[in-house]
Each structure stands twice: as structure tokens, then as C-alpha cells.
Amino acid sequence: NVWSDSTHAILFLLGALIILGIYQVCLFVSRRKEQSSLWFGLLCLVIAMRVIVTGNCLLNQWIPGFSWEIARKFEFFPIVLGPVFFSLFIRELFPDCVTKTLMRVNLAVGYSFAAFVLFFPTVVTSYLVLVFELYVCVAILWLLVVLLKALSRGEHGSGWLLIGFLVLAMSVVNDILFSRLVVDSAYLLPLGFFAFIVSQVILLARRFTQGFNQSEIFALELESTNKSFSRFVPTQFLQLLQRDKIVDVELGDQIERKLTVLFSDIRQFTAISETMSPKENFVFLNAYLRRIGPKIREHGGFIDKYIGDAIMALFPDSIESGIDAAVAIQRELAVFNQEQRVNGRPGIEIGLGLHNDMMVLGTIGEQGRMDTTVIADAVNLASRLEALSKIYGPGIIMMESLLDKIPARSSFRYRKM
């Protein structure tokens, strides 16, 4: 029963090592930047090689009469390749803590020993077991210094990695002494490596939690950034360009479609602004635009740009939405003027010009600076109609041909000029 329980424990450790090793290698294949996964996976697999040929010697139980030559190579490979894969794993985690010269020496020695084990008969390589073991001990001391250096620098995860490494190192030293009959224990490398894996699981959990928290913060910051961008480039503009995100917009993107354009301008604003300081001008304009902008959005439009005190807005849905917005703006202006007079400031008048036609909507500029815009004769016409409102007096002016396109023309009160 004791022998059976021991075998079951070894089988459990072997299965864990193989599964974890394959998982880590597959993780590297799917994401080549994660080279630490490759080296950790290979380390798990070479330790698994040693597990099946030491202790209960599972390989002989599974395949009676298995080649002693190959079995011994399975035992030697982890000794010479373990320090190589582990040092490469540490280098990926803490690159600034690993001396490049010592790293090259370690790789050269480890790969040379591995080639020697692979190509020479076991009866020859057996004479170098002591040399292999001395190499492992030197590599352990060097890696211990590297991890202590990482800990002193406050590298994330270095503490847990050091704890796991110390347990692993003690198990390696125990195996060396046990194989030379210095101590009466057992082969503990699988258990030591399992303890190291546990430390990595704890570290992974901490990193996952930290990464999840950072992802939440990033998502909130991204949402805030997107909202900020939408204040400069309206979401409707991106939708018209058939772009999901502002980062998808490229110089020269364009689309042609029928839109209603609205121009609004404060009459005699130059004279009004001369009575105010620059700061008062900004406060006044923002107070006025804060009342006008929502009326445009409420009727399905969006502000394409501000031109001083003027507004250029677009309505993709219908002509009626543009007219309804213009009427709502004039009504909101009456409320704004009433508040102005209560505060001892004069009221203002605005003119609005509208037109509807085919337009090209897109981006212009150059790679270092670009802007969204709408280009069409209809835009110039709407701007001129707004200018005519200063001469002829009505608050809203448009072409009669525009009214002819409205099915419910009689629902609007208008006069011809």
C-alpha cells in the first residue's frame, strides 16, 4: 500500500508537470511575445523526463526492458538543461537583473553538456556526472543572486519567485546528495518543483487580479477618453463615415449623401464683443451655446463646427428636423434674452440659414493635423442665406424649393420674399 500510494503521488506530479508544460508551450505558440511561457513549459517537460526514470522508475514499469541507455539520458538531460531553461525563464521576467556575459556562459555550458549527453554513450557521460552536478550548484547560486537582486529592486513577483526557487534549490541539492548516498532521504525534485509551481500559481493569481484591476481602470479611462473625443468629433459624424471608432478614421475618408445644413450667427456680434473683455466674451459665448447646442441634438442633428460665434450643424434624418431645430433655437433664444435682461445685459438676435442637398462628408488636412468637414454648394448656399437674414429680417431663411420638398408644408408658418 505504501508503494502504491507513492506511485500514485508520482503519477499525480508527472501528470501535473506534463499538462502544465504543454499548456505553457501552447500559450507561447498562441502569443509569441510570452517567451517566459516557452521556457517554463520546457522546464516542466524536462523535469517530467527525470520523474519517469528516477524513484519508482515508472518508465520501466510501463515498458519492461526499456533501453537503459535512453533512460540514463532522460536522467541526465534535466540536470544540464534545467539550469538553462530556468535562467532563460528568469531573464524574460527580470531582464535588467541578469548579466548578459554570465547568461551567455551559462547557456554555452548547459547546451554543450546537453550535446555531450545526446551524442556520447552513457558509459562516457557517467564519468561527468560530478561535473554536471557542480554546474547545477553554481547555476543555483548565480540564479539566487539574480533573484535577490530583483527583490532588492522591488521587481513585481520577485518575492514569491524567490520563495519557490529556494524550495526547488533545496530539493535539487537533496537529490544530488541522495544520489551520492550522503543523505538517506528520497528524490525530492518533483516535490520541490511542485512547490515552485504552487508559488507561481499564487503569483499568477496576484498578477491576474492586478491585471483585472488595471483593465477596469483602463476601460474607465477609455470610456472617458471616448466621451472627450465625441465632444470634438461627434459620434454621428463617425456613423455617417461608417467608422466605429475615431482611431479608424483616416485622412481622405469620405462619403456622399443628402444632408440638411444649418448655419447660425449672432447679429452684430463684433460690436457686442467690443463692450466685453476677452474673458467675458468666452463666458457669454459659452452661456449662449450651452442653450443652443442641446436643441440641435434634440432634433437629430449635430454640430459640425463652431466658427467664432457661428454654428454649422448637420441633420442626416430629414429636412423637417432641421427646420424644427431652427424654430426651437429661436424659442430658446427668447428665454436666453429674458435672462440676459434680468441680469442687466442686452439681448441678442441671431439669423439662421438652412438648405438640403447632396454633400461630401469626410476628412481633410495632412497626417499631422486633420479635421472633419462637409463640402458642397449647399453649404455655401446655407451660409449665404444666413447672411441674408441680417438684411431681410426674418430669424430663419431658406429656399422655397426646400419647402416644396416637405410633405407637411402647411404645418409651418412662413412668408415669401
Categorize the overall geometry: rod-shaped
- Distance between termini? 108 Å
Low-confidence residue ranges? none
Number of helices: 15
Overall mean confidence score, pLDDT: 82
What order do the SSEs take from the amino end to the carboxyl end, as H and E? HHHHHHHHHHEHHEEHEEHEH
DSSP strand tally: 6
Rg over alpha carbons: 38 Å
Estimated share of beta-strand residues: 5-15%
What is the share of helical residues?
Answer: 55-70%
The description of the largest β-sheet is: 6 strands, mixed
State the secondary-structure class: alpha+beta
Topology:
Layout (H helix, E strand, L loop, with lengths): L1 H29 L4 H17 L6 H5 L5 H26 L6 H20 L2 H4 L3 H24 L5 H22 L9 H44 L2 H6 L13 E13 L2 H5 L4 H21 L3 E6 L2 E6 L3 H24 L7 E17 L2 E7 L1 H16 L3 E3 L1 H5 L13
Structure summary:
This protein is of the alpha+beta class and 417 residues long. It contains 15 helices and 6 strands.
Q: Could you explain how this protein is built, in words?
A:
The chain has 417 residues and is of the alpha+beta class. The protein is 64% helix and 12% strand.
